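User: Some background: our group keeps a shared notebook of sequences we're curious about, and every so often someone picks one and asks for a predicted structure to add to the entry. Today it's my turn. The entry only has the sequence so far, pasted here. Could you supply the structure so I can complete it?
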Amino acid sequence: MPWPTKHTLKIACFLLGGCIAVVIAISYGKEAFQMIASIINTNTHPALLLILYAILPIVGFPISFFLIVFGIKFGAVQGNVLMFAGLPLHLLVSYLLARSVLGPWIQKFTEKWGFTVPQIPPGKGFSFSFLFMLFPGLPYTLKNYMLALSGVSFPIYFFLGWLINGLMGIPIVALGDAAKDWNLVLIALFTALFLIIALGRIWIKKRFQSRRNRR
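Assistant: Of course. Here's the predicted structure to add to the notebook entry:
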């Protein structure tokens, strides 16, 4: 019987980790979500959350925290609208900072953490940017800065960054909305959807790398 490939083991570990995360969330997550909901209650002014959302993801704070918070406080529909509305500000500021005098410092910072700014092949700006934003592995903030440093044109950078980051965030906001009422069916549904999307991104990345290696 042949040994499973490294890629198969990686997918199996990912699925196992996702199942464990769901079990932990169901067992212990209710208290955590209730604690967040108590902090972000009806007395919390929405302007405070929106100001923090506008600033903190630009400097590296995990955007997923705000997406869950938006789902808890505003619901899935309004939360997703607010998420999509705030992404352009993140992209614009990140692009301007990366193309300013801070660009070399940002590049050194990313390289210090083991990441290399991508080099876009001639005439491949749109497809390369699409795959770069789609592939998993990098935090939201680093992706925005690194793609801006790659030299891609602003319209491509802005459109794909807004579209892909927004689509990837929809299940997270919906998960926050489901967790607000501790609806286990919806929590399991959106967690499964998130895992399917993540696995799809890994599959596309693997297929793209395989095709490139055959050339």
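Suggested note for the entry: DSSP finds nine helices and no strands in the chain. The CA atoms of residues 25 and 32 lie 9 Å apart.
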